[in-house]
Each structure stands twice: as C-alpha cells, then as structure tokens.
Write a structure and sequence with these properties.
single chain, 403 residues, alpha+beta, Spore Coat Polysaccharide Biosynthesis Protein SpsA, Chain A, three-stranded antiparallel sheet, 21 strands, 31% helix, 22% strand, binds uridine 5'-triphosphate
C-alpha cells in the first residue's frame, strides 16, 4: 500500500509528505497515511490553478431591502410554535484574526460580561423558549481540528442548561493548505496542515452528517444559519421567517447599512443578475460611493451572516459544487530539516467556499433592515474595529436598553 501512495505522491509532486515517515511511531504513521488517503489530489491541482488567477468579470447591480412589520413577526412566531425552526451555528472557523488559541465559541468575553460566545448564543435560544415555550434544535458546525474541544466545552458547562438532546455537533470538510511553491504544508513530521473548507462547507456538512434528513423528518421548514462571532445575532427574532412566508422568499437575510462607503464588508447585490454578496475587494472607489436618488449608498446592505433558509434550498444545493477561493494565511510549518517554523507573515493558501454562494440558487433573497446596535456586534480582530472591546460595548448597551 505504501508503494502505491508513494507513486501517487510522486505523480503530484508531493513526495515530501513522507520525508520523515520512517521516524514515526505506528500510530503517527497510521494518522499520516489516513490524511494522505483522504486528499483528492486532482481537486488540489485544480485549486492550485486558482492561485493568482484573475477573478471572472461580473456584472453587479444593487438590491433593495425592506423594513419588517408586526405581521412578519407574528407569522414567524406561529411557525416556531409549530416546531418548524432550527438554528445552525457555524463555529468551524480558525479565528486567525482574533488570535485566540481555541475554538472561537469558547472565547470568554470579559468587560463585565464573563460569558463565552457559545453561552451568549445559547441565551438567545433560551429567550426564544421564553417567547414560544419551544426549545428549538441547535446544530453546531465545528471543524475536525476544533470539534473535540468544542464538545468538551459544552460538557463542562452542562450545555448551558439547554436540553442536551436538542444540541448536535457536526463537522465540515477540510483541505490541505498549500505553500507558495505548491507544496502541501506539514506542521509536524506526522501531520498535514488542514484548513476548514469555509462557511460554504455548511451545506455538505449538513447533508453528510445526516442532519438535513433528520430536519426533514422532524418537519423543520426554516433554518437560521449564522456565525458564532456576532454576539447580537438575531436568532430570537422570528421576523425573517414571517417575511419569507409572506413574500414567498426561500431565503431571507437581516442586513445593517454600512457606516461609511469604505467600510470593509461584503454587501448584498446581484452578480450577473443572481442574488449574491459582493466582497469588499470586488468593490472599487466608484462603486463604493454610488448613491441612489435619495442620496443613500447604492451598495449599502451588509451581509451580517444572519440568514434564514427554507429547507428546500438546503436540499437543492446539497450536491452543487460551490466555487473555491484561495485565502492567503499565516500558518506554522516544518522546514526540510523537520524544524517547526512560525512565520511572521502570510505564507500559505487555504481554500474556502462561502455561504453566500447559495443565494445564487434562488431568484430573490428577501432583505430586512436591522439596526446595527441591535443585531450586529461581530468579533473578528483582537483589537480595534470589530474586536471583543467594541462588541462588548454594543452588547452591554443593547441589554441595558432592554432592561
Ligand atoms: P470568518 O471567516 O469571518 O471567521 O467566518 P473565522 O474563520 O473564524 O476567522 P478568520 O477569518 O480566520 O480571522 C465567519 C463565520 O463562519 C464560520 C466562523 O466560525 C464564523 O462564525 N466559519 C468560517 C466556519 O464555521 N467554517 C469556516 O471554514 C469558515
């Protein structure tokens, strides 16, 4: 078997993966071989072709957003009362910008809050219970790297007193990281450095884990998919569901307006006439500053990753191939002598798909306008903009005003 693996590695110019094989223990050998066997080398070759490639030229156009009304809330709550609602939290990211060594959801906010991001999200579900008397199912996406630590954290915290049988974990797929020479990165003599396949991995993750089937069996109709790092994620507001029901949308999303034209965020818009999110790097000065007749920015509605999907959309895209995008990241690696190197700057590519690609499979995404101070307090960076400090302030102000 080792011989056939060697031939395959040779064919793909990745022989270095076995450079230290003879030094490894039996368990380490097994682990490394399993990793190598899980790699789709043809896919890797295709992905390497994406590095440095100019993106297709898309035609962009703007999208409209609306205010929700009481009826949306009522219709949505009625659906929740019927047991049709579930939450999927994406918590498989690497949190590199935050620089926290552990799953982002286990990060404990200080500044007088003293709760982890997981607990803060669970509080929202408990609030929903108070409103509806329904404990909605909570599905948490992890990556292979952070799954065990995440589950342990829930165990240790007694699932934050949410019914344990309502919480399930599932993992997303991962791909090897590639260095600038096109070589697969190893971060020890026995381990290939893998990276989670991006927020778009949630769709295949839900299918492969059997959760999508379980949802269908349990008559779930509406699935909120959100990130772990927005501590004001509006999962306990039913209006996105009601807005979808009333207008026959299959996907709805809650947006907040940009604070200034240059804010580095993805905004909703059409890409070649299909609903999408236009990333910051795809915008230029001119587009950032375009205004409509009322003087408002034309591309202003931020994708806050607060999306409600009809279950049929999740079924429909389960077998679709989403487009991979290379992301340049800083990662530890071993050099030719087998020594661990910690680089000062980005040194390798990770390949990701994005959740917003799913939007192109529906005709319209219904956008509801939210207020930043009520629904959007992201934690991305260790300091400065969108940091624990700024998010904590928003969080505390929000709950102070509520009480
Ligand atoms: P981001 O891309 O903003 O955050 O993901 P990240 O990966 O945690 O952090 P950086 O970019 O390395 O600093 C937004 C949301 O999507 C989840 C994240 O956990 C976060 O909740 N996500 C992202 C996944 O679950 N898996 C991924 O592969 C990527």
């Amino acid at each position: 078997m080792l011989d056939s693996i060697k031939i395959k590695l040779h064919e793909h110019g990745q022989e270095h993966l076995l450079n230290f094989y003879e030094e490894l223990s039996e368990n380490e050998k097994k682990h490394l071989i399993n990793q190598i066997e899980s790699i789709d080398f043809d896919l890797i070759k295709n992905l390497m072709g994406l590095i440095g490639k100019k993106k297709d030229a898309y035609e962009f156009s703007s999208m409209s957003s609306y205010l929700s009304v009481d009826e949306d809330y009522k219709l949505g709550l009625n659906s929740i009362l019927k047991g049709e609602y579930a939450l999927v939290t994406m918590a498989g990211g690497q949190g590199t910008r935050l620089g926290f060594d552990g799953p982002k959801g286990t990060y404990i906010l200080k500044n007088g809050i003293n709760k982890s991001l997981f607990e803060i999200q669970c509080d929202k579900l408990k609030n929903l219970y108070k409103m509806s008397n329904v404990y909605i199912p909570w599905y948490i996406m992890t990556s292979l790297v952070n799954n065990d630590e995440t589950v342990d954290f829930f165990e240790k915290n007694n699932y934050f007193d949410y019914p344990k049988d309502k919480i399930q974990f599932f993992t997303q797929d991962e791909l090897p990281m590639i260095d600038l020479r096109g070589k697969i990165v190893m971060d020890s003599k026995s381990n290939i450095k893998m990276g989670a396949n991006g927020s778009g991995g949630v769709f295949s993750g839900l299918t492969k884990s059997g959760i999508l089937n379980e949802m269908k069996k349990n008559k779930i109709k509406w699935v909120f998919i959100g990130g772990i790092d927005n501590i004001l994620l509006p999962v306990d507001n039913p209006d996105l569901i009601g807005f979808a029901i009333k207008n026959n949308y299959l996907v709805t999303s809650k947006i907040v307006p940009k604070v200034n034209p240059d804010e580095k965020v993805g905004v909703f818009g059409y890409r070649n006439n299909r609903p999408s999110v236009i990333e910051y790097i795809e915008m230029d000065d001119e587009k950032n500053n375009l205004r409509d007749e009322s003087g408002q920015l034309l591309y202003r509605d931020i994708h806050t990753i607060s999306n409600v999907f009809n279950i049929s959309v999740l079924e429909n895209i389960a077998d679709k191939e989403l487009e991979y995008v290379p992301a340049f990241k800083k990662t530890e690696y071993i050099n030719e002598e087998g020594n661990l190197i910690i680089p000062d700057s980005e040194n390798a590519y990770k390949f990701e798909t994005f959740i917003f690609e799913a939007f192109s499979y529906v005709n319209e995404v219904g956008l509801i306008q939210g207020k930043r101070e009520e629904i959007f307090a992201p934690i991305k960076n260790a300091k400065g903009v969108d940091s624990p400090e700024t998010a904590s302030k928003l969080y505390k102000d929000f709950y102070k005003n509520k009480n």
